[in-house]
Amino acid sequence: MSDTTTTPAHDTSAQGAASGGKSVVPTSGDRGRTAISQTVVAKIAGIAAREISGVSDLGGSAERVVGRVRDVLPGTSTASTQGIEVEVGERQAAVDVGIVADYGVAIHQLAAAIRRNVVNAIEQMTGLEVTEVNVTVHDIAVDDDASDNPRVQ
């Protein structure tokens, strides 16, 4: 019989602080560990929030301006983390989502749908427990067709 030494599959707080904002999710068995960056969790949350009908855009006005400039520049794409802030611990994550809602959408129902989708996506893809998803509505997007047809000619 040989002696084997196993190490825990989870990170200690000193190692977690040194890992640069990465979460360490316990894996099944003692064959290693998985580190998940805050950026990855933020991207998952951003994509999940954009999937909900009634979300016109993510982020506050400054973030949206930078996003529009980024859209115009060749070789760049929309940042999937725009309007998303995350805090990732060893086993849990908290998410703040800033949105622009479409006019006419029930905001409380929209926020609940965003929460459900973000929680499901993060928990299914990372194994992290999502403790909270805070939704801030920065603006309402109004259809611009009304400005094309002036009331007085």
TrEMBL record:
InterPro entries: Asp23. It comes from the Bacteria. Residues 1-16 have a biased composition (Polar residues). Residues 1-31 are annotated as: Disordered. Belongs to the asp23 family. This is Asp23/Gls24 family envelope stress response protein.
